[in-house]
Design a protein that fits this description.
165 residues, 55% strand, Porin
Length: 165
Amino acid sequence: MKSTFILIFCLLIMGVASGQTYPTTFASLSQHSVYVEAGGPGLYGSLNYELQLTDKPKFGLRAGLGYYHHNAKYLTIPLGANYLFTLEEEKSYIEMGVGVTFARADGKLRGASTNPDADHFTSYIPSIGYRRHTYDEWIWRIMLTPIINNFGLSPWLGVSFGKRF
């Protein structure tokens, strides 16, 4: 799990650093989003931050903290990348993305466990859905986010609501 996390972290950093030019404020207004999500990559629910890497919504990176409960309480850390395809209607998008969610029992990020096979798991989560930005910078979306992990493939949905700034 540690090597998977390091690999994804390095890929995200390389994606941010490669060829991007930012204004002196790092990123223009309305490229940052904070939102809550029910379901989705955070599994039961999560609080997320997203950064669009271009002036107009296209390619973005997201990270969050979430919750999952199944025989134990799990802290989840969803990480992902997405791309927004603009629809004809202004501020409406089809969103496609990929991500990975790390889950650790009882909120522990590290440490020994009496049952190391049950205290953590990693899920890989592709996503596709509809996103809408309102004129006063609120966002909402609905996503199909199937979960792929060592337990198999599970169909899953996510609904988000948040604010761009």
